[in-house]
Amino acid sequence: MADLSFYVGVIGNVISVLVFLSPVETFWRIVQRRSTEEYECLPYICTLMSSSLWTYYGIVTPGEYLVSTVNGFGALAESIYVLIFLFFVPKSRFLKTVVVVLALNVCFPVIAIAGTRTAFGDANSRSSSMGFICATLNIIMYGSPLSAIKTVVTTRSVQFMPFWLSFFLFLNGAIWGVYALLLHDMFLLVPNGMGFFLGIMQLLIYAYYRNAEPIVEDEEGLIPNQPLLA
Any one cellular component term from GO for this entry (predicted)? Predict the structure, then answer.
């Protein structure tokens, strides 16, 4: 069973890496146009926060090194995305974005890690408390693409819900859900199980509106915001 969980975890790592790399095209466009246009940085900021805390959880929890490795990569990738965004964001939004980055990517992780280490004396309690925090953040992360559903339904256009992002989020939830079952880790099982079902919902909506006639067309050919996962 331990060997099986290792191989499932490796597959989960590969899929998670693909999820983390899915916004590369978006940020390449930002660099080319030297502007963030109407993109929002919050999904990437939240994913960076989640990845950072999951990395810590994997480090302090015995047998969860596969969780720490992939989320360590995710934290690095999301850091690059956030830095690119800060470099090209319009001046009118720069200060607000910096404040959010400092609050969610610096202050909150420091408070969460320091708080759990201070409040709980034994390693198991610290691991459980951090797992609860990470699971809550993961549920929010998996639900973030659902914000595009209203726009998809209104415009009848799936350009507001990128297929590959939804597909890899679906696979990510499924694989890590199986991994959690094998290790009996409820902190991984609950958010990834929800991610699996939310992924199915997104793919069904994509399939329904894939060939629909759009009500409105996107001006200047701009690609809308892409929420991300870790």
Answer: endomembrane system
Residue 205, by phi and psi: left (phi above 0), alpha (psi -120 to 50) or beta?
alpha
CA separation (Å) from 37 to 6, 20, 33, 88, 136? Answer: 42, 21, 9, 9, 30
Q: Which residue has the tokens 């319009």?
A: 90
Tokens of 16: 């998670």
Task: Provide the residue count of the chain.
Answer: 230
* CA gap 144, 151 in Å, rounded: 13
pLDDT in tens, 14-58: 888 988 888 888 889 889 999 887 777 887 888 899 899 999 988
Residues 6+ apart with CB under 8 A from 89: 36, 41, 97
CA 194 vs CA 135, 181, 214, 226: distances in Å: 11, 14, 30, 20
pLDDT digits (tens, 9 = 90+) for 138-174: 887 776 666 667 777 777 777 656 677 778 778 888 9
Q: Which regions of the chain does DSSP assign to beta strands (E)?
A: none
